[in-house]
Amino acid sequence: MLKSISKTFAAIAVISTSLFAGSMVAQAAGGGEHIEVQDWGFKGPFGTYDRDAMARGYQVYKEVCSSCHALEHLSFRHLGDKGGPFYDAEYPNPNDNPVVKAFAKDWTVERIDQESGDVIDDTAIPADKFPDVFPNAIAAAASNGGAVPPDLSIIIQARTGGADYLYALLTGYESDENHDGVYHNSAFPGGAIKMAPPLSDDLVEYADGTKATTEQMAHDVVEFLAWSGDPKMEVRKKVGFATFLFLFIFALLLFMTYKEVWKDVEH
Amino acid sequence: MSGHSTYEPKYAAERWLDKRLPIVRFGVDFMGFPSPRNLNYWYAFGGILTLCLMAQIITGIILAMHYTPDVDLAFDSIQRIKRDVPFGWLLQPMHAVGASMFFLAVYIHMFRGMFYGSYKNPRELLWIIGCLIYLAMMATGFLGYTLPWGQMSFWGATVITGFFGAIPVVGESLQQWLLGGYSIGNPTLQRFFSLHYLLPFIICALVGLHVWAVHHVGQNNPIGIEPKSKSDTLPFHPFYTMKDAFAIAVFLLIFALFVFYLPDALGHADNYQRANPLVTPPHIVPEWYFLPFYAILRAVPDKLMGIMLMFGAIGVLFVLPWLDTAKVRSMRFRPITRWFFIIFLVMGFILGWCGANSPDDIAIPIGEHGMSFKWLSRIATLYYFAYFFPILPIMGWIEKTKPLPESITKAVLSGDA
Amino acid sequence: MSDTDKFDEHGSENGEPSRRDFIYIATAATAAVGAGAFAWPLVTQMSAAADTRAAGSIEIDLAKVSEGQQIKVLWRGKPVFVRYRTQEEIDAADAVDVANLRDPQSDDDRFVPNLSGVIDKRLLVMVGVCTHFGCIPVGEQGKIDPMGAFGGWYCPCHGSHYDTSGRIRQGPAPTNLPIPEYTYISDTVIKVG
């Protein structure tokens, strides 16, 4: 009797969960655009970011994307955080990391001059955030044919399809042709995008000798942006694994305690 | 709270305290509360829910230390919590995922109550207090979802507060009063934050009443007959504390799976975009735990009717104890109604599925076109209400129930419980 | 009832640790470890966040201060005083018998050597927060602020007097005005924190 009821419940739970999961998948795949699923190293319960790809991706961001797209939630020091693209065990404090300091120097930020009170341009320090590209959304739209270039720091999280979508978008241009500044892109919802094809072969020159194909650059910049959107993923997964191990043992012990307590009670 | 106390103070200090503030007596009696000996794992969700409430309050108080309720700063402050605050990457998803886990547990708890007839005499008030808790949870969940100030936060809040605008005559001024302006803005965010912090404590008070009520009338059980003798019950501690503790550990495994490995699975990508009053996301959906009600709302073409139906779907729960006319509590002894209940459950999931999809998309392809989600949600809505009326009252009169066991002990020993 | 009694005895019916005891103790110990591990994030989340810590150091250009002047710079939410002391003030600070001070410290000990390893006793860098209860002492040369009985600083809240080296001389404050951690990063620029 109990068994049959439990089974009914279990069956319902399974059916409903799959129904629910199915609808979520359907939702994720919605739109009909062609998004190919890529094999990212950061997927899965033990997945980690590829540090070299992230470092190359930063270069792509700096030399290509940053002319229009901001990284508003990132500070330069984040680049040298543990798990970041330029982490150096010798500098546990990323503010002291020479690579990060050098990168920060490449950028200009606005500061208030302590004597005159004027807004002055200054070289950035690791504690600074990546500067805005445009003063506001209206200015951004005005300089980009009406489309505001989105912030990239959490773009992977902010788009259905995530990393796969972004990779598909960056490699989804068939030609440079456009009609009134609108390009065709097979990944973009609706297929018409205002962003000109940002990548072309050998657009950047990688220091590590990797050949800068469009696909390679797209892959690298997505890897970098995946980290920038979820920089604590690696530590989260590690702590998660330990938590699972703990909870599993704890559940087992509690089950044994429960059985001991109930040993002499028929139920 | 129930029966006479079994506590006997041993030491002078205990007697001194017991005479002035019998708090130890209260605790001992509380933990020794006689519980039916046949409670199954579905009865562990009360304990699981207590844990959920505590976890939400603790993580919530912590997040409030770092969060900024300002339209220009709220979105960034969430990102700062995840990136720069020590362990913020853990505490923020715990709170966000925790809300989903809380609702998951409360739905199981409610369905358990419905299946075993836990709302029936003398537990009507216990059930109604539970419904109030659920209502307060929904309000808290909705207010909390506004706080990250993403696109879904903003547009979800816009749609939900729009309900009040549908009320005839006073609607528009009521809505303005609620929002503190013509649309969702900074005053709205600030008051939502304040209320989101307040409501959990009201839930705590309601939970206090809920627990008081259950200790007064005693727990229902899977066969739905009252304990008659001492052998029908076991003291809550250690028997059910340990059983609940094991269930909680298993529940935490599911919780941890989401927090650590799928922190965004229950959320929506659009909420990673800053709120923009000029652009509505192409496909707005509420959090999953509101989807069935969202589907009921959209099933009706009339705005006011849709809202009334949606609130009616919750309101009908309050009168459930009087709609179910059956003398027998547990569905185990109601061979036909049990199936109506199972269909009700499935319809609930179908409504959730409809709520997640665009009304005009095809849900079930039949021939050239098929049935749209709109029509599917209409059928499911109809059944949802039909279950409460007329199915339950009629089945209560006409159904021939199976014979009930003599006592809980007999049922346990014969393996029927 | 009999079941409860057994539980209360922790199962050691024959006076020896039983399997039951072992399970109970292991479970309780695991629970305690879990509670401790979970409490840690709840407590440490209140410590300074990464962005706060990153903003914890500033650079000050000492060349901006001229003789007899003092500037105040905000560092970690508190003022840092940079005082270009006159020769009389330096002499006054040196003339003090260190042994008689409440918080004995020679004037020389209150400086950090510059890049050439020399102590420049003209440029005194201190955290301008009274060590009594955290008010900001007054005492700038050339202003009408009272400088206290020792020609240095005076805290108006509870009347602590500091000398020209920022050392406590009179009043309730227990210690000298603190010297922040700082280093010279060029001939005239220091990095505080």
Please give a structural write-up.
The complex is a heterotrimer of chains A (267), B (417) and C (193). Chain A has a domain at 1-30 and 235-267. Chain A has a 3-stranded antiparallel beta sheet with strand order 3-4-5, with no helix packed on it. A two-stranded antiparallel ribbon of chain A has the order 1-2. Chain A has helices spanning 2-28, 51-63, 98-105, 137-143, 155-158, 162-170, 214-229, 233-261; strands spanning 108-112, 119-123, 173-179, 182-185, 192-193. Chain A is mainly alpha-helical. In chain A, 42% of the residues lie in helices and 9% in strands. With 417 residues, chain B is mainly alpha-helical. Helices cover 64% and strands 3% of the residues of chain B. Chain B has helices at 12-20, 23-31, 45-66, 74-83, 88-115, 124-146, 151-165, 171-179, 186-217, 236-261, 291-299, 303-323, 337-356, 373-398, 408-413; strands spanning 34-36, 233-235, 362-364, 371-372. In chain B, the strands form 2 sheets. In chain B, strands 1-2 form a two-stranded antiparallel ribbon. In chain B, helix 5 packs across helix 10, helix 11 crosses helix 12 and helix 11 (291-299) packs across helix 13 (337-356). The two termini of chain B are 27 Å apart. In chain C, strand 8 and strand 9 form a beta hairpin. Chain C is elongated and about 80 Å long. Chain C has 2 domains: 3-44; 52-192, Rieske Iron-sulfur Protein. Residues 1-12 of chain C have low confidence and may be disordered. Helices cover 24% and strands 21% of the residues of chain C. Chains in contact: A-B, A-C, B-C. Chains A and B meet through helix 1 and helix 8 of A and helix 4, helix 10 and helix 13 of B.
Helix and strand topology:
The complex is a heterotrimer of chains A (267), B (417) and C (193).
Chain A: H1 2-28, H2 51-63, H3 98-105, E1 108-112, E2 119-123, H4 137-143, H5 155-158, H6 162-170, E3 173-179, E4 182-185, E5 192-193, H7 214-229, H8 233-261
Antiparallel strand pairs in A: 1-2, 3-4, 4-5
Helix pairs in contact in A: 2-7, 6-7
Chain B: H1 12-20, H2 23-31, E1 34-36, H3 45-66, H4 74-83, H5 88-115, H6 124-146, H7 151-165, H8 171-179, H9 186-217, E2 233-235, H10 236-261, H11 291-299, H12 303-323, H13 337-356, E3 362-364, E4 371-372, H14 373-398, H15 408-413
Antiparallel strand pairs in B: 1-2, 3-4
Chain C: H1 2-8, H2 19-44, H3 50-54, E1 58-61, E2 70-75, E3 78-84, H4 87-94, E4 123-127, E5 151-155, E6 160-163, E7 168-170, E8 182-184, E9 189-192
